[in-house]
Here is the input.
Amino acid sequence: MTVAVRKTEEPERTGTEESPAPARRARTVSRSVVVAAILLVWLVLFAVLRGKQTLSLAAADLTDLHRWFNDVNDSIGANRNSNPLFLYFFNEIRLVIDTLVTFVQELISQPTPGRPVPQIGWLGVVGIAGYVSWAVGNWRVALLAVAGFTFLGLQGLWQESMDTLALTLSAVLVALLFALPLGVWAGLSDRFNRIVTPFLDFMQTMPTFVYLAPLTLFFLIGPASATIATAIYAAPPAIRITAHAIRSVPETTVEAADSMGATRRQALLKVLLPMSKRTVVMGVNQTIMAALAMVTIAALIDAPGLGKTVVQALQSLDVGTAFNAGLAIVVMAIVLDRVTTAASGRAETARGSGSPFLKWRRQLLAAGGVAAAVLVYLSHTYVWAAEFPGEGSVGSSISRTTTDVTTWAQDNLAGLTNAFRDVLTNGLLNPFQTLLTDSPWWLVGAALVAVGTVLGGWRAGATAAVCVGLLVGTGVWSDAMTTLASTAVATVLVMLLGVVLGVWMGRSALVDRLLRPSLDAAQVMPPFVYLVPFLALFGATRFTAIVAAIVYAAPVAIKIVADGVRAVPETTVEAATSTGCSTWQLITKVQLPMSRGALTLATNQGLIYVLSMVVVGGLVGAGALGYDVVAGFSQGQLYGKGLAAGLAIVLLGVMFDRITQAAARRAGA
Here is the structure.
């Protein structure tokens, strides 16, 4: 952006510096022409070689690699209790995590030995939630927490919700135990930051599905594996944001502390961490949100809670039950997000509020703590305060209403929804999927490498070449191409939405204020939730997964585009307007070209989000790699194929990420 601003300003002073801009436009056009030429050659060769060397594989067929994975799985299972590595390392880790999860579950969700109810019943949990929310936030957040947790009980999903909360809290505790020290280390050490950043990039590129299969190989299926997978998935945001917070402390402040004789430890504890507290808490917020999203998907490896209810309902096409459980996940996500967000800015908000109760805060907190302790005692002692009253009539009503609405939509909107589905499927998805799956594998690979090289440079091309070679080796090339087709089509539609709404938001502060809260709320919801409404509209098809992926990925793309358009210097916009540019010319000739770095970054994030959601769509008929992974969990003989499919998902994600990130850097250069 800085370079672009200089180029608009320098001609006014000298009148002789205009040649670089046309040169850049020429290079951009040249890349576009080269990409178009690559695609044209691909189409010509496809017409000649269609159906040859496609590496197709039937759903029940296995390759030697898949059988080897199965043998490894069987061997590990047979020697799990005799191999020293498992006996003294993996099994011990699993035992520790399992003990932690069991302790938290017995505390708030599962009956304990000798008791028909948990140690803390619903009334105590609601009291603790309200008190903690008030203590770290404010009374509005506390009211939201109390209402939200009470609603979970009214839905008839109290125990399932508490199981989800127990796994989330356990995973977050484990993740932060490692993430915060690593984040501080990365913030203090440039060398460690350079080492850890590629790993964090890689971990945040991988879709949630990918973590499950390898971890079940070492830790078996169950809550322990789910918690470990969730902790690993949720740790990168905390590490990255903590490092950023430490590095954002002004250098002058650190120098002042050093000049006063502070040791490195004192500077960390007295200066760096206190001044980074707000940002670190936001990192904790992101870790909690990531953990909640992962815990629900971990139901595929027998994690208890709301995720299991959603998975079972999706597999049986019970939209009503899936919607009720999905709504509970959304409510829990909103509560946890609001509480941690309020905690990050509580001190500043309290100082600015001028509340007369501020000076009595300690006394009020003490009184609130006593009240919460009384509620915990009641819930521990009396059954009426331990078991949520009623039979979940609200949840039953929600399920019935959702089922009725689904039936009505399918009966009355089928013509409209089917037409919409058929237009996109037959006009866009099927032709592109045919091009990918019916072309010779080497032709597709050559096209991907060539496009990657043109857009991202030789390093991106080399990464694409390695990924293509490994994709062939996984034995699921055809399924990978089907997933690639769905991902590419969904990403194109995401970017159309992103550009239209992003430009609108970037140009209008009012539209931004109206839309941004909804976009922020949409990013809080776990991926599972997006499948439910589109399952009702479109049934169990791959199109359901694509539409859900579009809605899931659109918010992040829209916000990035909006921020990029808003970052275009006002002087540049005014200069273009003064020359007589129309609104359309201003957008297409000035704002979008100067936002191309943001557009490429939006494409990068959209691709990663879409890929993760398309894979989750394997639960509702999307097929391809997502189905392979799910089948690997449910059918022992397909475990190796599911593991290979997970590896293929990683390779697609890495290839997409490297090419689009390199293209974004080149666009912003």
